[in-house]
Amino acid sequence: MPNNNLTITPEPSRIIGKVIIIGSVILIAVVVALTAIFFWRRYTKVASIDSQIINEQQLLKAEKVWKDNLNQLASVDKDFDNLTDVEEKQSGTDPTSPDTDKDGLLDGDEVQIHKTDPLKADTDGDGIVDGRELRDGTDPLKK
Fold first, then answer.
1. Are residues 59 and 105 in the same domain?
2. Tell me: the pLDDT tens digits for 73-96?
3. In the prediction, which pLDDT does 42 show?
4. What are phi and psi of 6, to 5 degrees?
5. Residues 52 and 27 grouped into a single domain
6. Residue 93: C-alpha distances to residues 11, 86, 100, 110, 130 (Å)
7. Inter-residue contact 79 to 98 (CB < 8 Å)
8. Residue-range definition of the domain harbouring residue 95
9. pLDDT tens track for 9-30
10. What is the dihedral of CA 115, 118, 124, 129, to 10 degrees?
């Protein structure tokens, strides 16, 4: 009669081989997962920095456009008298009239060249308007 109680025990080298294979698979899976996490975090950090740089560049570009527009606005001379509208406001002259005091001289020429008063037709008060004095060769600043 055959013995049916026979148990087969695997060889120890086979068990060790299986443990090494399973352990290697687990180790590879952990390394792959950690590598993926590392690169994902690095990529999202770079993307965030890129986004911040782009937003900062857009802001700088918008600021430059705003400053350029402001400079253009400041340099507007609607009446073509060689004074910008901002300078006209500062000096009290009319930004819509090239000769506020109607003395025959442009407001800008009075301020920048002749040093006469663009708000008074006769700066020195001698009864002769500034433009006439300059044409006649007299000094509009002296009586």
1. no
2. 768 888 989 998 889 999 999 999
3. 73
4. -80, 125
5. yes
6. 109, 10, 6, 11, 16
7. yes
8. 85-136
9. 667 777 788 888 998 999 999 9
10. 120
